Amino acid sequence: MEQIKKYLILILTFIVIFSVYEELSRLWSECGQLSARLFLFEYPLLILVGSLFYFPTKGNFKKNVIASLAAITPIIAAYILFDSFYYFRHRTFRFSDLHNILTIRDFSPTLLAGIIALTVFSFLPILILFFKDIKDKKSTDPNIAQKVALRFLLIIILFFLIFSPSVISLYQKKTLEFSGWSGNQNIETYGRIASIFYYSQQSANITTRLDMFNHQNSVKNPLAVEVLEKRNVYIIILESFIDPQYIQNVSFTKSPLYEKIPDILGNSSFDVAIAPVYGGGTAQSEFEIFCGVPALAKIDSIEFNVFNGREVNTLVTALKKYGYLAIASIATKENFYNGTLAYKSLGFDQLRLIDKVDIPGEKRKDYIFDGDLLDQNLEYLQTNYLGAKKPFITYILGMYGHMPFERDKTRHPDVLQAYISNKPAYEIEQIANQFYHRTKGIYDFLMKLRAADPSAIVLVIADHLPPVLNGNTHYAMSDKENIFILLDGPTRYQPTEPIHYFEIPYLIMGMLSGHQIKTPNAGELRNMYFNILATGNQQP
Predict the structure, then answer these.
(1) Residues 188, 194: Cα–Cα separation, whole Å
(2) In whole angstroms, how large is the CA radius of gyration of the chain?
(3) Nearest Cα residue to 301 out of 262, 338, 254, 258
């Protein structure tokens, strides 16, 4: 009973300290949040580790609280190091990063010394209590040496199990449901240490799979053609940009299209392209549009998660060889689909994130209205780059169409109603009203752009359809067919049949080179796919 009380003190001390840490860490980290799922893996594991460094005394509550604090001090230090790494590298620490720890010395010997000092000093309280415990028990416990040896053996066995990929991977697959789209969410939900195990295993699996495919670094980039006309390129991808007129059996009191948008479309509808995903997975569409290969999800369910920042063969890197500046303006928070590293691998020189740039206008749940986002970016480009000798490719990712399709009804009021079988269709009505205001924002932007940069190549395209199709809501096309418009200066490109997203960069390079660029065949695209991932998975 006495032993149980001692270890209850450790458990309670741990829960209190780490609950406080999780809440306080919101001040410096985006990953701070107390989640009940931390008790599925993270906290039990850390309490078990702490118990092996716990040296309580008999019947002294205060001393046992101090011993508990000493036991968890190295864990707190590990959390601090994790948060520091995440802040600077924009991703979770992986065990493979230990191979490169000495490279810190090359750019900051002080930082390396600080890491070593923090690690050493975090274990000092444990060492002090350990030797005190041996001294106190040496005269009363003849088996003290065997108990110390057993404790060290248990530590070795525990760490062997912890660092065994099969053990951790099996438990996590059965118990934890890590998300492929948000590293922040995974850390908040399951914990920092659990995320280290998960992403370390993912990294090891990726490396193994890439080796299996025997990639060749000599794969030619078919996008690397001579650019004869150094015109600016605008690529705009909009979240869930669906034309609700394609939803079947719905009647509207007014067309969801803004009245003047036909001036751009030439009195016809948007063109159609086939995305790699439905309902989610924005990064897959981005991958295809910039890399010119299908998003096969052969290595990871999200290709962006494979990238570590090294530049790969893309539309962006092909244009940079001809003096283009590459700017990405992303209306999401940092590390959405590993974005910080992925956009580096795609070749972007500048990354402007919505939470780092003050963009005035309507925001709903951190989603800024497309028209405000486009206007701010055009103003930024006009101020800094338009008219300069250096051409640019700019990428704008808008997230305004994300569920639950909210908007500021004071600024963007309802203009229509939607009905299915004479009954109000609220969700589709929300989408339709939002689409009306979004197409107005796009029209206004394109008209301003025509005046400011009339020869520009402009792509406006949806990332995917919203996840609203079901047994009662049907779409006139397949669930991966999305609307887009591609402008070649004053001329609109109009395909005779739907194209795939990965064909788009070849169309754009054809416009800049003055001749048609053929999309590679299936075998060539497959080789390019694995080459891109193998290269992008390397450190910069």
Answers:
(1) 10
(2) 28
(3) 338
Residue 44's pLDDT is what?
86
Q: Which residue has the tokens 């609203």?
A: 468
- Determine the Cα–Cα distance for residues 272 and 481; give it in Å rounded to an integer: 6
Contact residues for 147 (Cβ-Cβ < 8 A; gap 6+): 141
233-239+257-406+418-536: CATH number: 3.40.720.10
534 conformational bin, left if phi > 0, alpha if psi -120 to 50, beta if neither: alpha
Task: For residues 95 and 163, give the distance between their C-alpha atoms in angstroms, rounded to a whole number.
Answer: 9
**Smallest Cα–Cα separation from 402: which of 459, 467, 351, 338?**
467
Residue for token pair 């669930």: 479
Q: Buried (b) or exposed (e) across 340-372, using 16+ Cβ within 10 A?
A: bbbbbbbbbeebbbbeeeebeebebeebbbbbb
User: Taking a C-beta distance cutoff of 8 angstroms, is the pair 505, 302 a contact?
Assistant: no
Taking the CA atoms of 448, 451, 453 and 455 in sequence, report the sign of the dihedral they define.
positive
pTM: 0.73
Look at 106-115, 161-170, 403-412 and tell me which has the smallest mean pLDDT: 161-170
Does residue 444 have a pLDDT over 90? yes
What ranges do the domains of the chain cover? Answer: 2-212, 233-239+257-406+418-536
DSSP conformation class of 538: S
Give the residue ranges of DSSP H helices in 90-191.
104-107, 109-138, 144-162, 165-175, 183-190
Cβ atoms of 164 and 95 within 8 Å: the answer is no
Mutual angle of helices 42-52 and 144-162, in 10-degree steps: 150
Query: Other C-beta atoms within 10 Å of 200: how many?
Result: 21
- Residue 214: phi and psi, rounded to 5, are 50, 55
pLDDT of residue 149: 73
Instruction: Quote the percentage of the chain above a pLDDT of 70.
Output: 84
Of 431, 495, 497, the closest CA to residue 468 belongs to: 431
Residue 257 contacts residue 245 (beta carbons within 8 Å): yes
- Strand spans (E) along 239-310: 251-252, 271-274
Burial 246-257 (b: 16+ CB within 10 A, else e): bbeebebeebbb
Whether residue 485 contacts residue 467, with contact meaning beta carbons closer than 8 Å, is answered with no
How far apart are alpha carbons 353 and 330 in whole angstroms? 5
* CB < 8 Å & 24+ apart, contacts of 1-7: 2/58, 2/59, 6/56, 6/64, 7/51, 7/54, 7/56
DSSP helix/strand/coil, 373: helix
Q: What is the mean pLDDT of residues 87-107?
A: 66
Q: Is the pLDDT of residue 84 over 90?
A: no
pLDDT of residue 142 exceeding 80: no
CA distance from start to end of the chain: 56
Q: How far apart are CA 301 and CA 181, in angstroms?
A: 9
Cα distances (Å, whole numbers) of residue 118 to 33, 101, 275: 24, 15, 48
- The mean predicted confidence, pLDDT, of the chain is 84
The one-letter amino acid code at 199 reads Y
How far CA 223 is from CA of 510, 515, 517, 519, in Å, comes to: 9, 12, 8, 9
Q: What are 500's two structure tokens? A: 């795939």
